[in-house]
Amino acid sequence: MEKQMYQGNWKCSGCGGAITQLPFEPRSESNLTCRDCHSKKTGGSPTEKKMFEGDWKCSKCGGAITKLPFEPKSQSNLTCRDCYMKERG
Ligand SMILES: [Zn+2]
Ligand SMILES: [Zn+2]
Hints:
By secondary structure, the chain is an alpha+beta fold. The chain has 2 domains: 6-43, no CATH class; 52-88, no CATH class. It is 19% helix and 25% strand. The strands form 2 sheets. The chain has a two-stranded antiparallel ribbon with strand order 1-2. The longest helix has 9 residues, at 35-43.
């Protein structure tokens, strides 16, 4: 079955390009994104890594860790970026 598309003349809030079709009827004209920008947003760019935010402590220097590129399973043995770099040389 084909999805119903709404026809109109809207503007993408991301790139400013024209949007003529939407899979839904927009309630407001702001914050509309074209297909390109939408897929960029949801797909995520490969250069941007997902960071986990939290309140952890470095096991080496005791410094605060607020962001990690992974979700830590245990709070021990966490190292901050500085110590991590030092350890790797
Ligand atoms: Zn766009
Ligand atoms: Zn540290």
